Amino acid sequence: DSELKNQDLQKITELMDGFKASKALFTASELCVFDLLHSRPRLDAAQVAQEIKASVKGTECLLEACVSLGLLKSKERPCQKPMYENTDLAVRFLRSDAPFSLHGYIQHCNNTIWPLFSHLESAVREGTNQHEKAFGKISKDVFQDTYYNSQEVKLRFMNAMHSIAKVTGKAVATAFDLSRYKTACDLGGCTGAMAYEFTKAHPGLSVTVFDLPAVVEMSEHFHPLQKDNRVSFVAGDFFKDELPKADLYILARILHDWPDEKVHILLRKIADACTPGCAVLIAETMLAGQTPYSALQSLNMLAQTEGQERTESKYANMLSKHGFGNTHVVHTKNFLDAFIAIKM
Ligand code: SAM
């Protein structure tokens, strides 16, 4: 059919423009536009430009782009320049101190994922992450050799993990009835954000967060104001060290970082630490979902780590090799799906 369908053209245009929209969001977030308009709503472009130390021309373009994307509202005034304020979306997710702020993750997208994605062709050709091309760093282990080599990059990464875990944690923690488990170990639990959601949702559960020493030493910067003595931290390497004993092992965004061989090493160690009835709870976005989210996230893992996203049946199959069965999946419609398997 040679007829040009506007709907098709629009779909392709949206895809071609996706990166411009992402970068406009990242730039406004990086320049703290949403924080500024939260503390001082209704500024015009010149006032915003002065505060964020940017050109008036560039700021006008950026603010209008944010209006077109539904992140800002502009208030027209007769014979005067428009004034800008945050939309509800920006208030809830984009200002840096909002309870469900994604500011930390957006900074990681802008400073790490964006440069990695500019080498996506190489990532696809080579089947490997692109830290060397993007940042000039050869890394055998992306966490220990790259993210945790600089305090600034480490904190940015931890902030990014923290922000997503806060948004998705409750949906994951409440996906299953966990009342029979008394002790959990959140392997690679980073800042503890997920662990706190588990103890909030399950009054009888204590959670040990297990992560690398470089992370655990910074974790107190992320503790909530109301500390919970059912959350504790242990430093170690889950590939090398003994795992803390627990009835339930949580793996949130861990397995997608690693190739199958390393996933099997970790699952073997967990299986050895488990008695029958213990469980593994995996929080990942499952491939073959309804939206492109998980497939795009898999490209992200390709460009950033040694891993990839996997389907539910792949996880079930991998777990069955270590004696786990009776699997259940809950599609939370939040960032992460929840998957549980019981040690037989
Ligand atoms: N589970 C957290 C979440 O969902 O927000 C963080 C996920 S992050 C993608 C991966 C985590 O695994 C990081 O906190 C990292 O420090 C941790 N990690 C990586 N390698 C590790 C290792 N060898 N031993 C322990 N933790 C490790």
Q: Can you describe what's shown?
A:
This protein has helices spanning 6-30, 33-39, 45-52, 56-68, 88-93, 103-117, 120-126, 131-135, 142-146, 151-173, 193-201, 213-216, 260-273, 293-304, 312-320; strands spanning 43-44, 72-77, 80-86, 183-187, 206-211, 231-235, 248-252, 279-284, 324-330, 337-343. With 344 residues, it is of the alpha/beta class. The protein has two domains: 6-93, Arc Repressor Mutant, subunit A, CATH 1.10.10.10; 103-343, Rossmann fold. The strands form two sheets. Strands 6-5-4-7-8-10-9 form a seven-stranded mixed sheet, with helices on both faces. Strands 1-3-2 form a three-stranded antiparallel sheet. Strand 9 (324-330) and strand 10 (337-343) form a beta hairpin. The model has no long low-confidence stretch (mean pLDDT 96). The protein binds S-adenosylmethionine.
Quick synopsis:
The chain has 15 helices and 10 strands.
For this structure, what is the CATH homologous superfamily of the largest domain?
Answer: Vaccinia Virus protein VP39
Query: What form results from the Cα inertia axes?
Result: globular
Biggest sheet statistics:
7 strands, mixed
What structural class is derived from the secondary structure elements?
alpha/beta
The overall number of domains is 2
Strand order in space, largest sheet: 6-5-4-7-8-10-9
Low-confidence stretches: none
Gyration radius, to the nearest Å?
A: 22 Å
Question: What is the average per-residue confidence, as pLDDT, rounded to a whole number?
Answer: 96
The helix content, as a percent range, equals 40-55%
Ends apart, CA distance between termini: 57 Å
Strand content: 15-25%
CATH architecture grouping of the largest domain = 3-Layer(aba) Sandwich
Number of DSSP strands?
10
User: Which small molecules are bound?
Assistant: S-adenosylmethionine
Helix-strand string: HHEHHEEHHHHHHEHEHEEHEHHEE
- Helix count? 15
